[in-house]
Write a structure and sequence with these properties.
Elements (H helix, E strand, L loop, with lengths): L16 H31 L1 H9 L3 E13 L37 E4 L2 H9 L12 H6 L3 E15 L7 H7 L6 H10 L10 H8 L6 H6 L4 H11 L4 E5 L6 E5 L10 E4 L11 E2 L9
């Protein structure tokens, strides 16, 4: 008779119920630390809320653009300027808050554009131009036929320009006076994690807005990331958009807040001829509600 093959069992890791309990307690303690840290700084920001918003408004610029691009899934090609998708998921977008917790963090929509097709695709899929998603580069994804690339143009009356770090200089001068308590540093050390320290200059602050891993806070701890907190302040100030450099290509991107068009002369529209089925192709003070 043929010899029966022996089933081999390799132990890759071993842990006990006590280990699981300890890991769970550690995870809960880290989450509590992150929430307390966020709450402390949120409270102090609220005390200077009007000053912070004024510092942003006073550094806004007018901005006109054309031949920019937006990449959307083909199934949404009838509504290429809709911002609803940015609030349907828990994470939201870099500069807008999604469905984290409607009571604690009211969501608000953001509409994202890029200066060229490569940047639009890289931002949509979260990949660099030389990398791939599902085996395809951004250029190949564009040719795959599952996307719609829309050209857009617009004129905005107040835009926060993060491509220029000096734009947030006045903002930084206000928040730099918020000091972290020593108890937070000691608590982080006890947990075995790095304390989340305040930034020391404008460039460090800008870097926190442009981190590649910004999704960690909303995904793991149900807390808005730094760029989302900035977006929250910008939106509350009535500012129409944020201009910022793509983390992937370093080229210009825009996030537009359609709701802030309601008392503005600003507009964004599809650039060129549109299909007959496309009902809403322009965002302005009369039509902004159609895109929320």
């Amino acid at each position: 008779m043929p010899q029966q093959k022996q089933n081999l069992l390799y132990v890759l890791d071993a842990f006990s119920h006590r280990d699981i309990k300890r890991w769970k307690e550690q995870s809960q303690a880290i989450s509590a630390y992150c929430w307390d840290h966020y709450s402390y700084f949120a409270h102090h920001r609220s005390l200077m809320g009007n000053e912070l918003k004024t510092s942003l408004i006073n550094n806004c610029i007018e901005y006109e653009f054309s031949n920019w691009h937006r990449a959307v899934d083909y199934k949404f090609s009838n509504e290429p300027l809709s911002a609803r998708g940015s609030i349907l998921n828990e994470v939201g977008g870099r500069f807008n808050i999604g469905d984290i917790d409607q009571i604690k963090f009211p969501k608000f929509a953001g509409l994202y554009f890029a200066v060229d097709v490569m940047t639009a695709l890289s931002e949509k899929f979260g990949i660099n131009s030389e990398n791939a998603a599902d085996g395809l580069t951004p250029n190949q994804l564009n040719l795959a036929g599952n996307l719609t690339i829309v050209k857009v143009k617009g004129k905005l009356t107040n835009v926060l320009n993060l491509c220029d770090p000096e734009t947030i200089s006045d903002f930084f001068k206000l928040i730099k006076n918020i000091h972290i308590p020593l108890s937070f540093i000691a608590r982080a050390k006890k947990l075995g994690i790095s304390a989340m320290m305040p930034v020391h200059n404008t460039q460090e602050l800008l870097n926190t807005f442009l981190r590649d891993d910004w999704r960690v806070m909303p995904m793991q701890f149900d807390i808005p990331a730094n760029p989302q907190i900035l977006g929250q302040l910008v939106f509350a100030a009535g500012i129409e958009a944020i201009l910022y450099p793509s983390v992937k290509t370093k080229k210009e991107c825009l996030v537009v807040y359609p709701e802030n068009f309601r008392l503005s002369d600003a507009y964004v529209e599809v650039d060129g001829d549109v299909p007959s089925r496309l009902i809403h192709s322009r965002i302005d003070s009369a039509s902004y509600a159609n895109f929320l």
